[in-house]
Specification:
The structure holds two protein chains of two kinds.
Chain A lengths: L1 H36 L7 H17 L5 H26 L8 H23 L15 E4 L2 E4 H23 L1 H11 L1 H5 L5 H23 L11 H14 L4 H22 L1 H18 L14
Helix pairs in contact in A: 1-5, 1-8, 1-9, 1-10, 2-3, 2-4, 2-8, 2-9, 3-8, 5-6, 6-8, 9-10, 10-11
Chain B lengths: L1 E10 L2 E11 L4 E5 L6 H9 L4 E8 L2 E2 L5 H6 L2 E4 L11 H9 L5 H11 L16 H13 L5 E5 L7 H16 L3 E5 L3 H7 L2 E6 L2 E7 L5 H8 L2
Parallel strand pairs in B: 3-8, 3-9, 6-7, 7-8
Antiparallel strand pairs in B: 1-2, 1-4, 4-5, 9-10
Classes of the chains: A mainly alpha, B alpha/beta.
InterPro entries (chain B): AAA+_ATPase, ABC_transporter-like_ATP-bd, BCAA_Transport_ATP-bd_LivF, P-loop_NTPase
GO molecular function (chain B): ATP binding; ATP hydrolysis activity; branched-chain amino acid transmembrane transporter activity
Family (chain B): Belongs to the ABC transporter superfamily.
């Protein structure tokens, strides 16, 4: 009897784990470009997520779009806003720090603080809430498990973003150029690729995806100046565990961490669950420092 | 086609090249030789703009490209296969060629031309380049450098660490390319390969030109003396 109970309990946590995983995945997907592929430790990525969340807020509270379709407008708008913000940061600041990871970390940490303070000045320190569209109210009940529509929407959004990213990288001409530059800058340059322009495009995409993640976060919680900060460490961990720049690794790692978190939490509480997840990551990285996936070649190094 | 005059370059404060002159005419093979560490690769990297020149000039087809970024030089007709048969390892063979052929008016035909030149690559088109053998990777590297139809081909030790049968194929391709009127700037350690292909020979020592002249005027003994370790 006890085993059955345990299994039922674990199953009940499955949707929770999947939805935590989907949020982690959205937050990490953009980092997969800027950190995983370009190697830029962008501590301001969390603040880009926050800017995306406030874009959804602005769409409803300031522009006055009705909540029934504001979400669908906010998604592309947030992508554009944070993408352009990321582009400006790359061109104006981060570009001059390439090859200096520690300086980049401090620089982007500072940028993050500036953005947080800006958000406080513009929107006020207290959290704001963004009403979810009415068609996301309620949920499905499948086999005794309650699945809120908002969580299902985030899951679908994450899947769509992964599919679009995979298609872009493997099928499009500029995605191919991006992979070439990431693998070997000099060789890309001698193949006639303007590597600086590709850097900028990579940063635009990574930052834009942070905006999409921000909009998704408004569906499951309040929006505040530190909204993104809560996700930044987890997002970095997902990219490292998955293997730098490996899309499928990022996907697997996000869901693995999400599920682990959800399975442990009912027994241990939220704080201890976090400890367990971090401990598991430390053990995993001891055994496999390169992450789940790497590019295999015949070269020995 | 290519005129390098008084070229100086290096890494930070460490000077590697001093006052190097090299010239390559259309349809000719200019071979740069020298022992390890004399600056051959640095010379090619500076010609391609991967390392900034500290002094002197690089003139390609009458245009001074000394300050031009690498991709601009490549698009103006300079092709480069760097040392160590480098390819884009995560990309397939076909993608490697497409990366360099993108934006050409007839990229499909350009790739087809390379496959005729290197028939070994044809059955490997969908294999990831990181899984190729050294010889296959070198052929891909040269094909990638050629796919945009350059008027100057720069090759850094194309036969290094490659089995003899493929060396012979690569040497033949270099000869064919030059015969079509492409200028070839070649760094080569193997005396036989170098003297067999070269029209002119430039020997470097410690970053300076110590010999420069027609390959026909350079005897094996003299070459061996200049390159002696």
């Amino acid at each position: 009897m006890r085993t059955v109970d345990t299994i039922n309990q674990l199953l009940a946590q499955l949707p929770v784990g999947l939805s935590i995983g989907a949020v982690l995945l959205l937050a990490a997907l953009g980092l997969n470009f800027t950190f995983g592929q370009m190697g830029v430790i962008n501590m301001a990525h969390g603040e880009l997520i926050m800017v995306g969340a406030y874009t959804a807020f602005v769409a409803q509270a300031w522009v006055g779009l009705p909540s029934s379709y504001a979400l669908l407008v906010a998604l592309p708008a947030a992508f554009a806003v944070t993408g352009l913000l990321g582009l400006a940061l790359e061109a104006g600041l981060i570009r001059h720090f390439y090859g200096r990871p520690l300086d980049t970390l401090l620089l982007t940490f500072g940028i993050g603080l500036v953005l947080q303070q800006l958000a406080r000045d513009v929107f006020g320190a207290p959290n704001v809430s963004v009403p979810a569209p009415p068609w996301l109210a309620g949920g499905l009940t499948v086999a005794g498990m309650h699945l809120p529509y908002a969580r299902l929407f985030i899951l679908a959004l994450a899947a769509a973003c992964v599919a679009a990213t995979a298609y872009y990288l493997s099928r499009s001409r500029s995605g191919r150029r991006m992979r070439a530059v990431i693998h070997n800058r000099d060789l890309a340059a001698v193949s006639g690729i303007a590597v600086r322009r590709v850097d900028a495009a990579t940063f635009f995409l990574g930052s834009g995806l942070a905006g999409v993640a921000g909009v998704a976060l408004t569906l499951i919680g309040p929006t505040g100046p530190t909204t993104g900060t809560n996700y930044i460490v987890d997002a970095f961990l997902v990219v490292v565990v998955g293997g730098l720049g490996q899309l499928r690794g990022t996907v697997l790692a996000a869901f693995a961490l999400g599920l682990l978190n959800a399975m442990v939490e009912p027994w241990s509480g939220a704080s201890l669950a976090k400890v367990v997840v971090f401990a598991a990551i430390i053990v995993f990285l001891q055994l496999r420092p390169q992450g789940m996936f790497t590019v295999r070649t015949r070269a020995l190094t | 086609m290519l005129e390098v005059r008084g070229l100086c370059s290096g890494y930070g404060r460490a000077r590697v090249l001093f006052d190097v002159d090299v010239a390559v005419r259309a349809g000719q093979v200019a071979c740069v030789m020298g022992r390890n560490g004399v600056g051959k690769t640095t010379l090619l990297n500076t010609v391609m703009g991967l390392i900034p020149a500290v002094g002197g000039s690089v003139v390609f087809d009458g245009v001074d490209v000394t300050r031009a970024p690498t991709h601009v030089r490549v698009r103006s007709g300079m092709g480069y296969a760097p040392q160590g048969h480098e390819t884009f390892a995560p990309l397939t063979v076909l993608e490697n060629l497409k990366v360099a052929a993108d934006g050409l008016p007839r990229s499909g035909e350009a790739i087809e031309e390379q496959l005729e030149l290197f028939p070994r690559l044809r059955p490997l088109l969908n294999r990831r380049a990181g899984l190729l053998s050294g010889g296959q990777a070198q052929q891909l590297a040269i094909a990638r450098a050629l796919v945009a139809g350059p008027r100057l081909l720069v090759l850094d030790e194309p036969t290094e660490g490659i089995q003899p049968s493929i060396v012979a194929e690569i040497v033949e391709v270099i000869g064919q390319v030059a015969a079509r009127g492409v200028a070839v700037l070649l760094v080569e350690q193997y005396l036989d390969v170098a003297l067999g292909l070269a029209d002119t020979v430039t020997v470097l020592d410690a970053g300076r030109v110590v010999h420069s002249g027609q390959a026909a005027d350079l005897s094996r003994e003299e070459a061996a003396r200049l390159l002696a370790v």
